[in-house]
Amino acid sequence: MEKIVTEFQRFFFSMTRLSSFPWSFLEENLQSNKSADLISDILKQTCLHSLCRKFPPSVRYRRLFLSELVRRQEAAGCEPLDELYDALAEVLGSEDAAEFCYKSYLLPGGDALSLLENVALISQGTTGLVTWESALYLAEWALDHPQTFTDRTVLELGSGVGLTGITICRSCSPSRFVFSDCHPGVLHKLRANVELNGLSGATTPAVSVERLDWTTATDERLQEIAADVVIAADVVYDPDVVVSLVTLLCDVLRGLSPEVLICSTVRNQETYDGFKTQLRNAGISHHVITGGVSHVFPYNRASKIEMIRLHR
Length: 312
Description:
- By secondary structure, the chain is of the alpha/beta class.
- The chain is built from 12 helices and 9 strands.
């Protein structure tokens, strides 16, 4: 039962689609025991958990989640659970006008990484205010390969709201980590999330958040950062953006030859193939990193995600 409760907790705090929850296991338990004890345990580890009080998922999400728990409990003919109805009444009485909400991701050691994210996928003219699948995949890969980042300077391109970088800072012991993006709204949210997770002003690792425009970044600035590892997730989504990205990667690889890792959700094969063609034309080779990753975070694993390592 503990495993089921943990799954519900992981899915709830990351605001995973309700259809992905292990409802069948819950139904089997309710039908066999006619007891709401499991629902009570789930409730304590989700809506009644201290993390939910501090960094709550959206009101709408909590409302839908609790309503589904009530429906499953009533369908099984279990005794009414007062704390469940009280929690639902509380959330029904809350306003749901917030543009942002919190999503929390549980790390292997039991700690939680919490992010302030946009409710809408596209806002302020950017997609950088939410966490995408390839960022989660790259974070899982980092957790499986901490030695890639330990005691090294890491530069992240297009950090977005910061999931991958914060995971690496919290779990992989880099000596220095540079988050970067160029959209003002994204940078504001990124700085807030870095601070939210206790990394602002940290000395181990030394953390900074910088505006880095791929079209104007200079060799001098890249040399000042002197990255040992450069990472990026979900940055290959627009042919126009790809041109400036490849130009920047040429500059990155011209200097100290850092390890460069790019993780992409392949939504448009033509755009992704065009990225690889431009890399080839620029004299940059790549190879695909194969092998799976540990399933730490809940997300849609049906998406085609590819991770490549670049070199000259």
